[in-house]
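Dear support,

I submitted the protein below through the web form. The confirmation email said the job was done, but the results page showed an empty box. After a refresh the structure appeared. I'm attaching both so you can tell me whether what I see now is the final result or a partial one.
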Amino acid sequence: IRSKFPKIKWIQSFADERCGGFGIVYQAANFEFYGEHKAVFWTLGDEIYHNSLMTRNPKLSKSAAFLQHHKEAATCCELRQFRYIYWIDRKWMGRVLHDKKPYPKHYL
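What the results page shows now:
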């Protein structure tokens, strides 16, 4: 990424609590932890969808169209999402709006 896309300064990703590991893969890959928040998810059949698909234009997203069309058959739940950032250019760390925190542990 550094050589092919030099404008990218960090990678942000989220883990949720469905698997119970609280982002243990991100922790092992040296991502830093920047807190958590609650997010709404929808389950429809064997698929899980983020709530953002409920407001997305269904003409622009097949997943959004499918979920919105079948909303009555879906179940809704609220889960914690854990924010992880990997710094490609550490000089940009001062621009993050959240405070770095210790890793959450799933086994405590």
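Response: this is the final, complete result; the empty box was a page-load delay. The chain is about 10% helix and 35% strand.
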